[in-house]
Amino acid sequence: MSGDDGAAADRRRASATAPVTLSEVAARAGVSVSAVSKVLRGTATIRVSPETRQRILDAAEELRYRPNFAARALQAARTQVLGLVVPDLTNALFTELMHGVEDGAAAHGYTVLLGRLDTDRPQTEVIARLLGEGRVDGLVLQATDGVDPAALDQLLDPRAAVVLINSVARGRASSVTIDDVGGGRVATEHLIGLGHTRIALAGGQTTSYTAQRRRQGHQEAMRAAGLVPRADHETALGYTAEQGREALRRLAQLDPRPTAVVVANVNAAVGLLAEARALGIDVPRELSVATVLDSWTAENTWPPLTAVRMQLYAMGETAVGSVVRRLEAGAMTDEVILDPAPELVVRESTAPPSS
Amino acid sequence: MSGDDGAAADRRRASATAPVTLSEVAARAGVSVSAVSKVLRGTATIRVSPETRQRILDAAEELRYRPNFAARALQAARTQVLGLVVPDLTNALFTELMHGVEDGAAAHGYTVLLGRLDTDRPQTEVIARLLGEGRVDGLVLQATDGVDPAALDQLLDPRAAVVLINSVARGRASSVTIDDVGGGRVATEHLIGLGHTRIALAGGQTTSYTAQRRRQGHQEAMRAAGLVPRADHETALGYTAEQGREALRRLAQLDPRPTAVVVANVNAAVGLLAEARALGIDVPRELSVATVLDSWTAENTWPPLTAVRMQLYAMGETAVGSVVRRLEAGAMTDEVILDPAPELVVRESTAPPSS
DNA sequence: CTGAAAGCGCTAACAG
DNA sequence: CTGTTAGCGCTTTCAG
Question: Which pTM does this prediction carry?
């Protein structure tokens, strides 16, 4: 089958790792490079005899041929790589999104490059680099809360395949968002259903699109029940545990105190709950706590947190689908993930008001 | 300065986004491509007159030239990309490591590609692809707990720039580990110092290298204090919250019960604490809990968890340094991050035994 | 001081 | 059915 030459080459290969090229495979199979290229990537017009075909396949196999990424990318002007750019890599919630992006990308034949978002350098730089240098074909981008929308607009080349997560820029980029309004509504309705009327909101910063929409959902639910959202029942401190603690400290000073609170983020809710403990406020007897977003941490607080499960994973997956569609069909879309809907997970941090 | 031609081209550019190439810049500056290439990348031998130099710089600037990634990679046989391959993207602790890797990579002029670790496909496949296709120059790899070391050995081409996180393969790849032994020791010593003698260990799975070493540290501390580690005081269930809960359920059946427990992972500790609550075990009065690894969640449990802060971020950063050194100097090393040392953070989940 | 030309590994016409 | 050829955009000798 194979002469001494081939066997010798094999032995050499085994110890060294010089990359095997197409032409080496061609030489071994005794055909031209183009023949190998065609066979190996299964070009539509497979006009090759079964024998040569097999010879090529064998040669590639024996040589452990791997197509060179850079060469392909250069020729195709495509890398099959998607960039994922987010402001905070360390957020546990982000990992769920990232997971969705990862899976989605893999399903579409892409890999994911992490985009670093320097706090000092403008976001625009990252995008321009990644896309401009052709390192990635498209981008899944979570714009920083409070980024200047005009600046974003400017930089978003409408021809680039960019999908925004948790924000929209109609006509400039695609977007995918989860049902934040629904999330805020569901949490609030649960509390209303329990009989609460003095329901506070520990919200995110006002510049955050998700915070705005969760607040909107909260207020809609209140009004629908004939309740009036009161400004002094609302904080807009942010999504971290410490900010959740601070929110409770403020809310606790009210008189009369709210009997329930909707927290716009589970991390903040975990902090708020810990602070309740520290302040000697009994949850849920004196205060019911419901949070938007779920996570394993919510199951392991005391009491376990009633939470609204949001589709972060799906958002990541959908976002990838969106970029890919953009890449392949040029379509620019704004999607909201409504199905599956935000799902209430009742645990033990909520109960009817005691008074 | 520039004729109509240039201005017209500019306008065209502004609306379209056809990638600008070196030769376009050359044309605009009225020089050759090689001249542009040299000037733009600051080749050592800058033999170019100041005027042409400036002309080139201006042209590149005006055209918003960006070097094409694929072309460079092909030519240099280098991508300036590092792969990060871990078993579980969704683990909050992993994000700290990832952050370190990200920062380290950026500092060395690399970007990070996320490696997907299919549960079904062998780890070897990922590595072979990433490295074999030249998608990345090197790899930071956290081998799955319980991966067959022999298999790993086999696949790790000693010429490849791979650094192992949390495991070692002497002579086959570089490695970086944190001081797990120290972590287990510090947590245990704290408990001993408080006066405990019946100290249990809620450990990780025995196949896990980190679990083995944290256990080792625990036992060393016990013996050093004249205490005998008892097999029935040890569980080896794993690092998740649920596994932590299960560990406590088992430990709680002992008679006499341990008065303290070292948990090998903070996620498990959070679960264990929640379970203590559920079982009506008072922490720290009836049971002191100290955990290896710290995280924001540990501050927000009730009571807040005494924890040993480990250098995950540093491990990520160091790992990148290690690959880069491998790439540039061929050095293969095994490093243990001992400085800064594991640091005990005393909170409220530990106290002297009450009896 | 500057330019022409070869080639990195691959794909896609276009000939034979 | 198969081989030859011309680039993709960049870097790098090597001549001028």
Answer: 0.88
